Amino acid sequence: MDTGQSKREFRYVGTRPNRPDGVDKVTGRAQYGADMTAPGMLTGAILRSPHAHARIISIDTTAAEAIAGVRAVITGKDFVRLDDEFTRDVQENCMAREAALYDGHAVAAVAATTPVIAKAALAAIKVEYETLPHVTDVDAAMKIDAPVVLAGRALETVPAGMSQNVTNACEFGHGDLDAGFAKADLVIERSFKTAATHQGYIEPHACLASVTTDGKADLWCCTQGQFFVRTLCSDIMGMEASQLRVTASEIGGGFGGKTTVFIEPVALALSRKSGRPVKIVMTRDEVFRATGPTVSSSMDIRIGMTKDGRITAGEATLRYSGGAYPCGTVEMGAQAAFAAYDLEAVRTYGLNALTNRPKEAAYRAPGAPQAIYAVESIVDELCQKLSLDPLAVRLQNAAKKGTLSSYGPTFNDIGLVATLEAATNHPHYNAPLGPNQGRGLSCGFWFNFGGNTCVSLNINTDGTVGVTEGNPDIGGSRASISLMAAEELGIPYESIRTIIADTNSLGYNDVTDGSRVTFSVGLATIKAARDAIGKMTSRAAQYWGIDADAVKWVDGSAVPAGSNAGKFPPLTLAEIAAMSPQTGGPIAGHHEVNVDGAGVSFGVHLVDVEVDPETGFTKVLRYTVFQDAGKAVQPDYVEGQMQGGAVQGIGWALNEEYIYGEDGRLQNPGFLDYRIPVSSDLPNIETVILEIPNPGHPYGVRGVGETPIVPPLAAIANAVSRATGVRLTELPMSPPRILKAMKG
Amino acid sequence: MVKVKLWGTLGQLADGQSEVEVDAKTFKEMLDRLTEMHPGLAPYIARGVSMALDGVIYRESWFQEIKPDSEVVLMPFMKGG
């Protein structure tokens, strides 16, 4: 579909206005999850399992309930057992029923008049556990005699005879692998491991729930999707959706980790039992122990290449663990693994195994960074051993329009080649390197998607505009939405204010995930603006006494469509809005849609590192991100997404990991021991935005939020491997691990 | 009739076929015919699948028209972060 957007000249889209939430955020006025209060509010607190795996024999809450100031105590028995398996998993992850499945699993909760009393009440709850054997490593969990985390959860495709922990199995690909590998001059096969990492959002989960005696409820929470929170919580609480209003606060980071619920049903249950509003704010320890990190992984990769750099075949076996409940993330990894390449023979197999770890939550491009790290590491090693230029080899094998993708469909217009060419021509690629330094690169890929979206756009009588949308603003979407409304309406950006609605004020909107918001909400905003424009041109036509189709919209005004329509001076939006009470009443535009056509996204990252041979410490010297954004609506935010993804990926590559002890307990649930990159660890992350329009969007927009976390793992690993002369195959590449590899 | 490519795992549940032909003009009709012809696919389809139609991924659009010469690929339901 050619929408002609590549030829369009934009007036507002593509500019860099100040962010509309900036003043609130730097002055402390913005309301985050923990900032909400209500009269008579109680403090909620959660008791968590100290065991990696234990049967709950009994929970005695008598002593806790007797403490003055304690208003409610609940356990898993306060929740109805649900029939739907997906929602039941979510519910039991919020509050264990028969067994605690990981260190930190919630087993009881209290609501009390003060935090001190709540803490004392937790200490007074007596839980009798029968500890059970546990398993936290994905490979160990797949052994036939491994402790079983949950029985009977294997999908139909899991081969017989596997451990009961294996829940998902998948396979993708095409072509004849044997023939492909036979054509290769060099075949490399290696195994890789990656640690589970946390999204590391600075704002912990927080919510305030208020349930009234007539069954209505309000819930304020920090979330990526207030509508999905309403769906989950109303199902778990046995409420009608209309009776539960959920309002999203400002959000201090999510990255996928706030796409589900952890404390919200608990707060609602405590509020219902106590008859008072209940606020729960997680500690950092709770965030690490009980909210979703990524999958951990173990992978075997085999790739063949000819002497002149043609990849002849690729094969990957991915073993992921999404913690204590079934998880299909491996399907995404298996599809993404070889997506950057045009291959005649490719096959990926994926398995998910249960472990005694917290339930996985999405994290930017879930499943893709791990698989692509392993594939891109082997591609780099093949280039090294065959003395080939790694960028030239990627260009030679790059997927392009007409390529049968490794996951099934044939690609349409995609931007990988342009992105690789931009990297090739960038001065970074040929800059000199010093001793102990290495340069690495990697391609990255993500699918992106659209989804259910609903937007209202109100024309105010003073000529300003309010846009109401339903997706929490994580990466600057209010600015992008306002820019697209300004572009379509032809009025200044500053005349538009975009707000995020609660669940009773707008139709259903999918979660802020899948890199969907600027794409989907932007598309719905453009169409809502066009709806409003249609109404405004009709009002102008009535005013002039001509047919509605004889009026068109130009630069923020209604004008006669041609000389035959008559001669009338333009009527501006403000003029039409001012007389709207006399011409038919308020003017608003709406659009509701389930958006498709998001368009896949590719990126290339280039990085230089220096590894200290004495300590194994890696310093990132230079980092450049190249990515196709389709059309960058507010380039500052696009660059922010590219930089943020790179920084998080650097953390995955070098430092971040969930470390479990022999007892199955998490050893590092805090930012002192779980080290995310800080400013002083990083160079300026340079960005190069490419704009290859997405035909599925009126302005050519593609999602940009997830792709940038995909390439850093391999880019850094390839740089470290070239700097040290030894191939690193396990993440994170912490100093001890690098030293060990260097010493053989 | 449209040809529907199944990802490897689903092929096992459709009598080992990696591509099946169904009489369908929309995404919904395609899912209904697949369920009727290959009951083993029913649980997967009920849990949610996506469709790539000429390279464009559709997640839920039941009434999306499918032309006889279109490339149709059944995919797992997409999720993101």
Question: What labels describe this entry?
Answer:
heterodimer, A: 744 residues, alpha+beta, 27 strands, B: Ubiquitin-like (UB roll), 5 strands, 28% helix
Could you give the topology of this structure?
The complex is a heterodimer of chains A (744) and B (81).
Chain A: H1 22-27, E1 42-48, E2 54-60, H2 62-65, E3 70-75, H3 85-94, E4 99-100, E5 106-112, H4 115-124, E6 126-131, H5 138-141, E7 166-174, H6 177-183, E8 186-194, E9 206-211, E10 217-221, H7 226-237, E11 244-248, H8 264-274, E12 278-281, H9 284-290, E13 296-305, E14 311-321, H10 329-336, E15 346-353, H11 368-385, H12 390-397, H13 416-425, H14 427-430, E16 437-446, E17 451-459, E18 465-469, H15 477-489, E19 496-500, H16 517-544, E20 551-554, E21 557-560, E22 571-572, H17 573-578, E23 587-595, E24 601-611, E25 618-628, H18 635-654, E26 685-690, H19 712-724, E27 730-731, H20 735-742
Parallel strand pairs in A: 1-12, 8-27, 10-11, 14-15, 18-19, 25-26
Antiparallel strand pairs in A: 1-5, 2-4, 2-6, 3-5, 7-15, 8-13, 9-10, 9-12, 13-14, 16-24, 17-18, 17-23, 20-21, 21-22, 24-25
Helix pairs in contact in A: 7-8, 10-11, 11-19, 12-13, 15-16, 18-19
Chain B: E1 2-5, H1 8-13, E2 19-22, H2 27-37, H3 42-47, E3 49-53, E4 56-58, E5 72-76
In short:
The complex is a heterodimer of chains A (744) and B (81). Chain A has 744 residues and is an alpha+beta fold. In chain A, 28% of the residues lie in helices and 24% in strands.
Category from helices, strands and their pairing of chain A? alpha+beta
Report low-confidence residues of chain B grouped into runs of 5 or more.
Answer: none
What is the count of structural domains of chain B? 1
Neighbour order of strands in the largest sheet of chain A: 3-5-1-12-9-10-11
**Which descriptor suits the 3D outline of chain A?**
globular
CATH level 3 topology of chain B: Ubiquitin-like (UB roll)
Just name the CATH architecture of chain B.
Answer: Roll
H-E string of chain B = EHEHHEEE
CATH superfamily of chain B: Beta-grasp domain
Strand arrangement in the largest pleated sheet of chain B: 2-1-5-3-4
Describe the oligomeric state of these chains in a short phrase: heterodimer
Measured between the Cα atoms of the first and last residue of chain A, the distance is 55 Å
Helix content of chain A: 25-40%
Counted beta strands of chain A: 27
Fraction of residues of chain B in helices?
25-40%
**How much is the radius of gyration of chain A in Å?**
27 Å
